[in-house]
Amino acid sequence: MRKQVFIINGQGGVGKDTICACAARYFRVRNVSSITPIVEIAKFAGWDGEKTLKARRLLAQLKEAFTAFNDLSFRYCMDAYEAFLQSDDEILFLHVREPREIERLRRAIGPSCRTLLVRRPDLAARQYGNQADDGVGAYAYDLYFDNEPPLDTLPERVKNFFQNI
Fold first, then answer.
1. Residue 135: pLDDT above 90?
2. From CA 163, how far away is CA 76, in angstroms rounded?
3. Picking from 13-17, 30-34, 133-137, which range would have the lowest pLDDT averaged per residue?
4. CA distances from 78 to 2, 42, 113 (A)
5. How many CB atoms lie within 10 A of CB 147?
6. If you placed Cys at 120, which of 3, 14, 16, 150 could pair as Cys (CB 3.0 to 4.6 Å)?
7. How would DSSP label each residue in 17-62?
8. Cβ atoms of 34 and 63 closer than 8 Å
């Protein structure tokens, strides 16, 4: 398999990490989130790690502030991409929420990068009260994966999805 990059997105709880874990059963996968450096800052400042609505809003605001200040999350993702290119990994998943940041990364990485939205119909109406979580559908993704039951068939569906791309 040639190296592939997927900017993955979806509402909280749709199973993005589960999809990545299933893919890792069949492919060499690197899984990176653009929010990781922001999470570290929030923890240093006293956040307990619980993803409440208030905490999700905090993380979204911090990410926006650090994007304006020094482009922290974008640089973090580009560093991960460069490390991926030097590795024997086959798939890089970059978790990014904001449509503007998705597009910036897609353009910076180029044709080997595709965008992927994970959906779960039972969560479609959920709102979180911040732009990063509530705006996930405001982008024209290249690919869509519907994460629907039954869960026991998910690993095979994920394998087939990525093999057929």
1. no
2. 28
3. 133-137
4. 19, 21, 12
5. 22
6. 14
7. HHHHHHHHTTS-EEEEETTHHHHHHHHHTT--S---HHHHHHHHHH
8. yes
CB 74 within 8 A of CB 105: yes
Three-class SS state of 10: coil
Instruction: Spell 96-134 as b/e; 16+ CB within 10 A means b.
Output: bbbbebbebbbeebeeebbbbbbbbeeeeeeebebbbbb
pTM: 0.92
Q: Which residues pair with 91 in a beta bridge?
A: 4, 29
Q: List residues bridging with 92 in a β-sheet.
A: 5, 30
Amino acid at 156: E
Which amino acid appears at position 5 of this protein?
Answer: V
Token digits of residue 68 = 């304006």
Structure tokens at 19: 């999809």
Helices 16-24 and 154-163 meet at what angle, rounded to 10?
70
Model confidence at 89, pLDDT cuts 50, 70, 90, reads very high
- pLDDT at residue 84, as a whole number: 98
